[in-house]
Design goal:
Layout: E1 3-6, E2 11-14, E3 18-19, H1 32-44, E4 49-51, H2 60-68, E5 77-82, E6 84-86, E7 92-95, H3 99-113, E8 118-123, H4 132-144, E9 148-154, H5 158-167, E10 172-176, H6 188-195, E11 198-202, H7 234-254, H8 258-267, E12 273-275, H9 282-290, H10 298-307, H11 320-323
Parallel strand pairs: 3-4, 4-5, 5-8, 8-9, 9-10, 10-11, 11-12
Antiparallel strand pairs: 1-2, 6-7
Helix pairs in contact: 1-2, 3-4, 4-5, 5-6, 7-8, 7-10
């Protein structure tokens, strides 16, 4: 697995990371034993960039990742997040970017993960009630205290990224990006490239939709949060399914899967872009990793651009409440 730089502060990670969220939350039940085996398999294959958050579970995903890293911490780039607040019973409590909460959340994450330092610490969502300078100032204090190595933001607007970066260097911005979510190309990617900030693409497989695994909306099982996402509902689902069929046509010609082609496309967007597809099984992880070896020709890229042009996806990427928290 090749590596890529995130930012200009010295952070290097595998060209593809592993999103761990689905191992504990949102997409229905998963086997913890298989999840830990999947993390170990990732590390064995050179995927050293693991992504979690205190809100996943809530709290349980950090503990799971911590258990997986016992005896294997060296060489792992561990990223976690704070800011989205949930109670122990899973109820959402809003977004908190107050300096005192930043410190509290970091200490709690360190304890759950069982580590001395977090490699990349993100603000998960921007708290619009707290100036970004105050939040990032508190995050910078964590760097000076040796609890955090590098700083990141997630789903932050371009102007917010500029203000944050002026307060303390930001190494990575994490935002949804895939063939069916091209929003960052307008303003976010140009901004982070101007500032020398790396870009981490979450949901590079469109929450699994781009793999073709969902033939109908009924294939999304009960308890799966995707049932609430507009893109997975009704006429939106039907329209988006046609997009996947177009992607699969290109994939078939290259003798790869639709998911591998979608990941290869994200990887092709620049050496400063690192996708973090999530999975809960070793088999799917192996399939994803193979995408790093796929070379896309100019013809391939042109076909994909014609098949899934920017803005063609039907439906918002989150329900209404989630949409209010992005681009903060």
């Amino acid at each position: 697995m090749k590596t890529r730089a995130l930012g200009r502060q010295g952070l290097r990670v595998s060209a593809m990371g592993l999103g761990c969220m689905g191992m504990s939350d949102f997409y229905g039940p998963a086997s913890e034993d298989e999840a830990i085996a999947t993390i170990h398999h990732a590390l064995d294959r050179g995927v050293d960039f693991l992504d979690t958050s205190d809100v996943y579970g809530p709290f349980t995903n950090e503990r799971l990742v911590g258990r997986a890293l016992r005896g294997r911490r060296d060489g792992v780039v561990l990223a976690t997040k704070f800011g989205n607040v949930r109670s122990e019973d899973g109820q959402w409590r809003g977004v908190d970017g107050r300096p005192e909460y930043v410190r509290q959340a970091c200490d709690a994450s360190l304890q759950r993960l069982g580590v001395d330092v977090i490699d990349l610490y993100y603000q998960h969502r921007v708290d619009r009630k707290v100036p970004i300078e105050e939040t990032v100032g508190a995050m910078a204090d964590l760097v000076r205290a040796g609890k955090v190595r590098f700083l990141g933001l997630s789903e932050a607007a371009a102007a917010t990224v500029r203000r944050a970066h002026a307060t303390h260097p930001i190494s990575a911005l994490q935002t949804e990006y895939s063939l069916w979510t091209r929003d960052p190309e307008t303003e976010i990617l140009p901004t982070v490239r101007e500032l020398g900030i790396g870009f981490v693409a979450y949901s590079p497989l469109g929450r699994g939709f781009l793999t073709g695994r969902f033939a109908t909306a009924e294939d999304v099982r009960d308890g799966d949060a995707r049932r609430q996402h507009p893109r997975f509902q009704g006429i939106n689902f039907a329209a988006n399914r046609l997009l996947v069929d177009r992607v699969r046509s290109v994939a078939d010609d290259k003798q790869v899967t639709a998911g591998q082609l979608a990941l290869a496309w994200v990887l092709s967007r620049g050496d400063d872009v690192v996708p973090i597809p999530g999975t809960t099984t070793r088999a799917h992880l192996t399939e994803n990793i193979a995408a790093a070896d796929i070379q896309l020709t100019a013809e391939d890229l042109a076909r994909l651009e014609a098949a899934v042009p920017p803005g063609v996806t039907s439906g918002d990427r989150y329900p209404e409440g989630g949409m209010r928290t992005i681009n903060g």
